[in-house]
Amino acid sequence: MQESREELLVAELKVFRRRADGRGVELAGSAVALEVELQRWVEAGLEASEAVGS
């Protein structure tokens, strides 16, 4: 079953901090504003790459 483009663009974004020992730790709390902005950047990049490719 093939997924639609809209389904592929929706993803849960997680933010991590690298500890001194090199391990990643997921940051807790509300990062909604950051996630929304990151999603906009990702989508804008996808749209730009599609425009160049067509």
- The sequence of SSEs as H and E is HEEH
Tally the structural domains.
1
How many strand segments? 2
Side by side, the strands of the main sheet go 1-2
Rg estimate, integer Å:
15 Å
N- to C-terminal separation? 25 Å
Helix and strand composition category? mainly alpha
Mean pLDDT: 75
Spans of at least 5 consecutive residues whose pLDDT stays below 50 are: none
Tell me the overall shape.
Answer: elongated
Percent of residues in β-strands: 5-15%
Largest sheet: 2 strands, antiparallel
**Percent helix among the residues?**
40-55%
Instruction: Supply the number of helical segments.
Output: 2
Structural account:
The chain contains 2 helices and 2 strands, in the order αββα. It is 50% helix and 11% strand. A hairpin with a 5-residue loop joins strand 1 (16-18) and strand 2. The chain has helices spanning 5-9, 32-53, and strands at 16-18, 24-26. The mean pLDDT is 75. It has one domain. The protein is mostly helical and 54 residues long. It is elongated and about 45 Å long. Strands 1-2 form a two-stranded antiparallel ribbon.
